[in-house]
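Bit of a strange request maybe. I'm writing a small parser for structure token strings and I need a real example to test against, not something I typed by hand. Could someone generate the tokens for this chain?
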Amino acid sequence: MDHRAVGRECLGASALKPLGTLVPGQDCEGRSSSGIGAGEEGRRLYLSEDVHFRLRMLAYQRGRKISEVAQEVLDKALPKYDVNRVG
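Reply from user aminoacidic:
Good idea to test on real output. This should exercise your parser:
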């Protein structure tokens, strides 16, 4: 199956569900899809279809939200910077 077709559907526990079956504000499992918790800010990030699909599949395999998996992947891949401010 072409991953672009899957991108329009929700990966449920047993089968693919059409996007129309989702409740606004919830993900596939009925959890809140805001993705913003305590101490976190919403950000806009644009990803290619392929990267978004792979990130979604990883999140589905781990049973976690895409934002949580993206945080882990980026935290491991990006260098840690030490910012020292003078003044």
